[in-house]
Model the fold of this input.
Amino acid sequence: MITVVDYGMGNLRNVRRAFESLGEEVVISASPEVIERASALILPGVGAFGEAVKRIDALGIRRAMLEHVAAERPLLGICLGMQLLFEESEESPGARGLGLLHGVVRRLGPGLHVPHIGWNDVVPVRPSPLFPAEGGVFYFVHSYYAPASEWTVATTEYGIRYAAAVQQENVYGVQFHPEKSQQTGLGMLRRVIAVMGSHQSTPANEPA
Done:
């Protein structure tokens, strides 16, 4: 079962509906026990990095997500959820991200309309189960970005070229919104489901 992390920020129900339309069973939860033992986690998010970190820590779910990853179960961050995988963000100095990926999230540069809203090409830069070789066009809404790095599996361009998707073992992240990207997004989520099924997992609410 897929568990969507509920920390009070993000379009949780749209994400759930997208997975359910593909035949998946989905639960939305803020329970540390459910999150830690979930077979697969989705970390969505819309809003400010600092507020997201504050809510995650107030709910006591930071450790649960880190334990989930340490148990080699998959986690997918979407939009702000991807940014939270990193150590920190220029948006909220001093706020500590999950630190699953090294790096600092940056603000989109001067001269650009912020937030960036719209459809952009996503171009794979190394093989990843998240994308076909040709990539695709996905829907973005964001003001901050992760610079291209060793974790980057696909890039996009808005003023500069930056990470559209990242991957490190069982940790995945996408800056765009697959749940708002119509058939291309659903195609990517089918790939996510296959990826999640390929990881050895323990069902939610059952002892590890």
Q: What stands out?
A: Confidence is low (pLDDT under 50) at residues 200-208. The chain has one domain: 2-198. The longest strand covers residues 116-124. Residues 2-198 form a domain with the Rossmann fold fold (CATH 3.40.50.880).
